[in-house]
Write a structure and sequence with these properties.
globular, Cytochrome p450, about 425 residues, about 50% helix, binds protoporphyrin IX containing FE, alpha+beta, 11 strands
Length: about 425
């Protein structure tokens, strides 16, 4: 081996900020071993985990933190160069529970668990059924032969309206809020764009919380405000409250849109599997799990930090280094799913064996809601439009400009193929 080849093999793999081919990137990382060094946008280095067993073990290891302020020296407590100029800074700067560690995380998670009960999800069922049916009515009115962007015209408005119903976001505030939140996922944005988005977002959030404080309802934001304003409570400061609501909005809609988008795309490109569902030979839960495994809606989540040196068996991740779990690569780990891990197969025995909702203390609190939405939306869509098909070839579809959010920019379909 020449010296040049040796140095190429140890150079960190450069993560594409525009997420143009997440799975090819995952394969390149996996070829280096269960965990490999990568360079993120902005020149920040991180260890990326692609191995399912290692991911699960790190996600349940107290030596792994999500709090940059406590455990990432390079972050300089949010007062250094990274906070000023790193385009991905908002992923670690926010003080919500997704970035909290240890006792702080337990306190915030307990408050959310108190407000985001199983009942709150269950009561949304009739609302979701009506939303699905109304949106499909709108789509049914499309002129014959005109393509419909099923992501933009069905998955997206459904997920948005459900999260608005859950959180009690008034109709007048929705358009601005979701435009700005969508901008946050664009990991290729410039620093100026990120800063402008952040300012606008905080303005909107402050207005939302002021409104809910004046006119509380039976919704999650009101329940969180009650927890915040209750002096007896475990405490939630104002920044935590804003960031928590923001987290719910951000984590709660684009992820679900991606799940619906990929599930629809995969079923349209695998009609024999759609038939299994329509004939009752497979369940929609099987299809939902396989879609989650095959195309993890959150591909990579920035960021985690080593609290101490961590010996993974292959390498030692030094204390203070950053790491990322690549949920999209973990979902396709051949050690778990076999040599055909890249194939979509709703009958695959390991279809439930994925961690696309996370694992350990930060496991997704909205998973039951996302599953409920998908289990109501998907069967109804395919029942209403049994002749639905893709309007363009799969290789013409464009991925979202993100290495975090895994979906298509649009998913054009024809309700009735010629
Ligand atoms: C298909 C849809 C969804 C997917 C794939 C998904 C995925 C995830 C993942 C991977 C995590 C763990 C993050 C980590 O590694 O630290 C997470 C956490 C979280 N999710 Fe979801 N999510 C979905 C829907 C939702 C919904 C509908 C909501 C809220 C209504 C939600 C709220 C949250 C929150 C608050 C956390 C943070 C939990 C914590 O830090 O303790 N998610 N989600």
């Amino acid at each position: 081996m020449t010296d040049q080849t040796a140095s190429q093999r140890t150079d960190p793999i450069r993560i594409d900020p525009s997420g143009s081919d997440l799975h090819a990137e995952g394969d390149r990382l996996r070829a280096r071993g269960p965990v490999a060094q990568a360079e993120l946008p902005g020149g920040v280095t991180a260890w990326v985990v692609t191995d399912a067993d290692l991911a699960k073990s790190l996600l349940t290891d107290d030596r792994v933190s999500k709090d940059a302020y406590l455990h990432w020296p390079a972050w300089e407590n949010g007062e250094g160069e990274l906070a000023r100029s790193w385009p991905l800074a908002s992923w670690v700067a926010e003080r919500s529970m997704i970035n909290a560690y240890g006792g702080d995380h337990r306190r915030l998670r307990k408050l959310v668990a108190k407000a985001f009960t199983a009942r709150r999800t269950a009561v949304l069922r009739p609302t979701i059924e009506t939303l699905v049916s109304d949106l499909l009515d709108d789509i049914a009115a499309t002129a014959p032969g005109r393509p419909v962007d099923i992501r933009g015209e069905f998955a997206y408005p459904l997920a948005i309206r459900v999260i608005c119903a859950l959180l009690g976001i008034p109709a007048a505030m929705r358009a601005d809020l979701f435009r700005v939140v969508a901008d946050m996922f664009r990991t290729s944005a410039t620093l100026e764009e990120v800063q402008a988005t952040g300012e606008e977002l905080y303005g909107l959030m402050t207005a939302l919380i002021a409104h809910k404080r004046q006119t509380p309802g039976d919704d999650l934001v009101s329940a969180l405000i009650a927890a915040r304003d209750d002096e007896e409570s475990a405490g939630l400061d104002e920044t935590e409250l804003v960031d928590m609501v923001l987290l719910m909005i951000g984590a709660g809609h684009e992820t679900t849109v991606n799940l619906l988008d990929h599930a629809i795309h995969s079923l349209l490109t695998h009609p024999e599997q759609l038939r299994l569902l329509q004939n009752g030979d497979a369940t929609w839960d099987d299809a939902i799990d396989e879609a989650l495994r095959h195309e993890a809606p959150i591909a990579n989540l920035p960021m985690r930090f080593a609290v101490e040196d961590i010996d993974t068996g292959q390498v030692t991740i030094p204390k203070g280094d950053a790491l990322i779990i690549s949920y999209s690569a973990v979902g396709r780990d051949p050690a778990v799913h076999g040599a055909d891990a890249d194939a979509f197969d709703i009958a695959r025995p390991t279809r439930h064996d994925h961690i696309s909702f996370g694992h350990g203390v930060h496991r997704c609190v909205g998973a039951p809601l996302a599953r409920l939405e998908a289990s109501l939306a998907l069967p109804e869509l395919f029942a209403r439009f049994p002749d639905i098909g893709l309007a363009v070839a799969t290789d013409e579809l464009q991925p979202l400009e993100s290495f975090v959010s895994n979906g298509h920019r649009t998913l054009p379909v024809l309700l009735k193929q010629a």
